[in-house]
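TASK: fixed-backbone design
INPUT:
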């Protein structure tokens, strides 16, 4: 493989441009103009885990960290659960992604609607368009969670660390992610859109300056149900093929992991497909659980084996998620709501 076109310069596209071997020539195509381009996200991730991946691309993650979490409050309404954090941070995702694009050939303002005819001379076209999935066939029964977020600044915010408040039925959650220096992301994603007025009330209550209003739905359909991953010259990476952890709507690390699988299987689509399905297999279990909850057909008895395997997965991957997973907290969160 000699020439690769990367469509989309979010975290997956930008990371990929820095992970391809030197003998591959890459060009990126981004629908937004350079001035209007922005990384929509709450910027939360696990520092110990992502640092190694960022290093593989030649960057030092520590230079971008904004807030190091110690404890996250999960507000269950009648009770608050305090989850000890083990590396969950916010970082300046926009600046790091922007730095990853420096010196790369990027065609800004290039909205690509189809690969056919557009990419003669390229061996592979990567669909890194996230939610849009502009170049691959649509996903049947795609589950996407509408979300909205404000970047705000205020001296009156009563929280000094991460806070989340899940909505009843686990259809999404409200969040406060601190960015340091009185700044933070207040946002919410909810299948039923119940957050509509909550963000404005927050802004009013704490006299916030709204720096930016952003939002787009998050795909929580896992890779198992987001096939095909490739068609003709096009191969998908990142959220376009469902690499978002459905319980948290967390897609930064998974999208980068997906890029690494793509690079490991360059030119071997079937090998890549199998590696993605294998690596993200647990996401399908989490998705089944979330679907059962939101469709109101959750039964603790029936789903207990699934829940146990999700718990054991998270418990065994505390470094990956940057937080301690205790059985009592997990049980409360998944059963009470
Ligand atoms: C409000 C919100 C908060 C989130 N918070 C977190 C968080 O705190 N932590 C976390 O881990 N994850 C979070 N996520 C999820 C995470 O941001 C995404 O899963 C991740 O960014 C996906 O990366 P990606 O590169 O695949 O897609 P994206 O980051 O969406 O990038 C896609 C790029 O493709 C471009 N594009 C789209 N269509 C075309 C086209 N036709 N032609 C050219 N370019 C195109 C877009 O402009 C964009 O630049 C959040 C998501 C949302 C919406």
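OUTPUT:
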């Amino acid at each position: 493989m000699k020439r690769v076109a990367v469509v989309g310069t979010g975290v997956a596209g930008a990371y990929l441009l820095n992970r391809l071997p030197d003998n591959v020539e890459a060009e990126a195509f981004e629908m937004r103009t350079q001035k209007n381009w922005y990384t929509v996200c709450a910027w939360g991730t696990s520092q110990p885990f992502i640092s190694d991946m960022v290093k593989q691309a030649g960057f030092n993650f520590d230079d971008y960290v904004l807030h190091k979490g110690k404890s996250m409050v999960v507000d269950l309404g009648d009770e608050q659960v305090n989850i000890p954090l083990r590396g969950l941070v916010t970082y300046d995702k926009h600046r790091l992604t922007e730095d990853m694009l420096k010196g790369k050939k990027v065609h800004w303002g290039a909205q690509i609607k189809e690969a056919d005819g557009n990419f003669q001379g390229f061996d592979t076209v990567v669909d890194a368009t996230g939610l849009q999935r502009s170049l691959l066939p649509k996903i049947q029964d795609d589950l996407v969670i509408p979300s909205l977020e404000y970047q705000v600044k205020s001296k009156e915010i009563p929280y000094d660390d991460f806070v989340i408040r899940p909505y009843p039925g686990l259809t999404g959650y409200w969040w406060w992610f601190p960015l340091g220096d009185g700044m933070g992301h207040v946002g919410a994603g909810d299948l039923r859109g119940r957050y509509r007025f909550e963000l404005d009330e927050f802004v009013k209550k704490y006299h916030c300056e709204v720096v930016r209003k952003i939002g787009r739905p998050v795909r929580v359909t896992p890779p198992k149900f987001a096939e095909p991953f490739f068609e003709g010259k096009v191969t998908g990476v990142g959220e376009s093929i469902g690499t978002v952890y459905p319980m948290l709507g967390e897609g930064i690390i998974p999208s980068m992991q997906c890029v690494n699988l793509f690079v490991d299987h360059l030119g071997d689509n079937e090998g890549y497909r199998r590696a993605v399905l294998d690596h993200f297999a647990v996401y399908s279990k989490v998705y089944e659980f979330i679907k059962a909850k939101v469709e109101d057909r959750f039964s603790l008895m029936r789903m207990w084996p699934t829940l146990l395997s999700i718990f054991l997965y998270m418990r065994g991957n505390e470094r990956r998620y940057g937080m301690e997973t205790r059985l009592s907290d997990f049980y409360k969160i998944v059963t009470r709501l």
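COMMENT: The longest strand covers residues 172-180.
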